[in-house]
Design goal:
There is one protein chain. With 288 residues, the protein is of the alpha/beta class. The chain has a single domain (15-198, 238-285), classed as Protocatechuate 4,5-dioxygenase, Chain B. 36% of the residues lie in helices and 20% in strands. The protein is built from nine helices and ten strands. It has helices at residues 15-27, 56-72, 108-116, 137-143, 164-177, 206-222, 226-236, 243-253, 267-270; strands spanning 46-51, 78-84, 91-92, 97-99, 102-106, 152-158, 182-187, 191-193, 257-265, 276-285. Strands 1, 2, 3, 4, 5, 6, 7, 8, 9 and 10 form a ten-stranded mixed β-sheet that branches. Strand 4 and strand 5 (102-106) form a beta hairpin. The chain is globular. The N and C termini lie far apart (39 Å).
């Protein structure tokens, strides 16, 4: 059992305070203005969201846009959360997670089938320092609060040691074999800027230039161009934290319709224009 590590850092520890924090994210002036009302059944076989991986105080309103959209498709059979490992190797964990809302279980048949393909291995220890997966769990549980016991996840961390296309093909094939509908989540912060982040590429107008940098990256996602997106991130040396997860999401879903729901920086929350992080809520759909 994985005990929560991000309580008091990313989100409130007490369930009542966490409820209030997430509800206020949906109702925030930068949020969508409405709380989720999930459909009874998932209306699509495959769906994806790109969402921030940060404290709810600053990223919650942006996250809420993705989760409101996610709720409209209904509860999937499995939520696949793909983060990025900086350790140089990839893995899947089969261990359940605990949050203030309760236990979130891993889809064991799906995890085992993917591991058996031998293109990515089980590596529970790899997730000990991870924030990508846990950062999303309370939002998932809040979104589907009436169906908590039915929520199943598949946590994946990817790095430079795997063939992304082969792993993506494995996941898609096994989802079809097991007749499971899935939502793919790629948590990421687009740009960490400032002396605190050790990243100051612009001498003037940092907000405007960061916006231009991020907009161009988002265009590659909208064009479903994983290679172009990766090349752009490398060329610009973007200080982003999960570009591999985004690439995996694109390869699995092969979206035909990509929508940017929200974009802002932490400056709009805390007023700090010297050190800031940019967030985006992006929806990946097979069909309009």
């Amino acid at each position: 059992m994985r005990k929560p590590k991000l309580t008091g850092i990313y989100y409130k520890e007490a369930p009542t305070l966490l409820d209030k924090q997430i509800s206020e994210s949906f109702e925030h002036k930068l949020g969508p203005g409405a709380n989720p009302n999930p459909a009874k059944e998932m209306t699509e076989d495959l769906h994806g969201i790109i969402v921030p991986n940060y404290s709810y105080e600053k990223s919650g309103p942006c996250m809420a846009w993705s989760y409101l959209n996610m709720s409209s498709t209904g509860l999937p059979d499995v939520v696949i959360i793909i983060g990025q490992s900086e350790k140089g190797y990839s893995g899947i964990t089969t261990e359940p997670y605990e949050t203030p809302y309760g236990i979130v279980r891993v889809d064991q048949p799906l995890a085992r089938a993917i591991i058996q393909k031998d293109n990515i291995k089980e590596n529970n220890a790899l997730f000990d320092e991870d924030t990508f997966v846990e950062s999303q769990l309370p939002f998932i549980q809040y979104t589907y609060k009436k169906q908590l016991e039915k929520i199943k996840i598949l946590p994946i961390l990817v790095s430079i040691d795997i063939n992304y296309r082969e792993v993506a093909a494995d996941i898609k094939e096994i989802l079809m074999d097991q007749k499971k509908k899935a939502i793919i989540i790629a948590p990421t912060n687009f740009t960490h800027y400032g002396t605190n982040a050790g990243y100051i590429p612009f001498s003037t107008k940092p907000h405007e230039q960061t916006l231009e940098l991020d907009q161009e990256a988002i265009k590659y996602i909208q064009q479903n161009d994983p290679k172009g997106y990766m090349d752009y991130v490398d060329e610009k040396a973007m200080n982003t934290n999960n570009y591999l997860g985004i690439i995996m999401a694109m390869l699995i879903i092969k979206p035909e319709h990509v929508t940017l729901e929200q974009y802002y920086t932490t400056t709009e929350i805390d007023g700090d224009d010297k050190n800031f992080t940019s967030f985006a809520s992006i929806i990946l759909q097979k069909h309009k």
